[in-house]
Amino acid sequence: MKVSYYPGCSLHATGKEYDQSVKAVSDALGIELKEVDDWSCCGASSAHMTNFKLSIALPARNIIAAQNDKLDMMVPCAACFNRFKGAQHHLEKDDSLKAEIEEIVGAKYDASVAVRNPIDIIYNDIGLEELGKAVTRKLDGLKPVSYYGCLLLRPPEVCQFDDYENPYMMDGIMGALGADARKWSCKTDCCGGSLTLGKTQIVVHLVDKMMMMAAEAGANCIVTACPVCFANLDTRASEKGRLPAFYFTEIMALALGLKGTEKWFNMHNVDPKPLLTSLGLI
Amino acid sequence: MNTFLEEVNDRMGGVPIQSCFHCRKCTAGCPIAFAMEYNPNAIIKMIQMGMREKVLGSSTIWLCASCETCVTRCPNDVDIARMMDTLREMAIESGVDAGEKNIVKFHEAFLSSIKMGGRISEPMMLVHYKLKTLDLFSDMGLGMSMFMKGKIKLLSPRTKDMGSVRKIFKSTDK
Ligand code: SF4
Ligand code: SF4
To answer: Looking at the whole model, is its pTM more than 0.95?
Structure first.
């Protein structure tokens, strides 16, 4: 299958290992990626927290750029995914807003592009059975908790993604790789997001609580699909209870025996290699 | 002249916030409530009581992380997250002293980075933010280690058609 690909700013910087692992995994599973032409930032939380129209126009510019490709659009970053889905929701229910945004962007919005996260594409289009067949190294001993955070799921009528109070697709993917996904109650909790710079202590408090709950659930690592969550989990937990965090695609690449994992793990702040070495996975 | 309540409702669209019956489910599930000056449902009450300055100058509206848990769970579909966005816009427009200055400066730095290159350049954005807040040293170690690990580069590719990005900023500027 072929999809258009919107990496977004994070995946070219602090979320680099997410970008590279998404590409490696897609390649291995036969998903061809075509980068959206001359993409720009989606505006993230800063635009929607301070200027509604800007928060619609910035994603609209990119969705419109992707229309020419006539493909579903893969958006790995949960924050970008949320902004794209939000913009589509408003554009499709408010004609006068749509006309105004089309004027600003200088092109028509035709509602043809399906915005999709790779979790959804892998779970629904590739399927767990196919994924299981591609595994070359079962992840015995790896006990992740799946952490979705806010931006893939809420508001549910906008995101239309997985079960919004108890999502299961990431657990399914982990299971297909041979990992023992642990049940826990913080799957959809908030990590504090962009408060990480202006109000670091709030984020430390939230992340510490999550680490504690993950350990209580018997997990030895946390997997996520969001660069904001990843950065907070990887850099803000206090010394006392740090579990390594992974992008779910890094874990997939490990199980599929793909190249590059070592390089990505070296970019983490909390080194996951001691855990993986002790389990004989690297 | 419109009351504060009418003004907020008009700008938000959707369910009027006085549909709230103060069950406090929003506050119970709010991850940030522990740090807020006024709880999410208290803000609704304060708007109904016309407490414009207190609401627009409160830390609550800037601390809200837009996690959307409140609106997802509200039995009356009151969109508190959208209400917080609206209040932030109103606070900026009215020029009241923000209850959380660093957060406002973060958003300013973030948006000016997009305006300059079409995409976020994290080092440029951080420099901007650090200069605005004069908080020069926190996270320096973290920033350096990310730099050394090759995660953040000083120069990254920008959007080519910057004209279209500038037009978006210009047309949406109030
Ligand atoms: S959950 Fe809804 S009805 Fe209940 S207090 Fe909050 S806004 Fe009001
Ligand atoms: S959106 Fe804001 S007010 Fe609502 S639960 Fe999240 S942090 Fe609290």
So the answer is: no
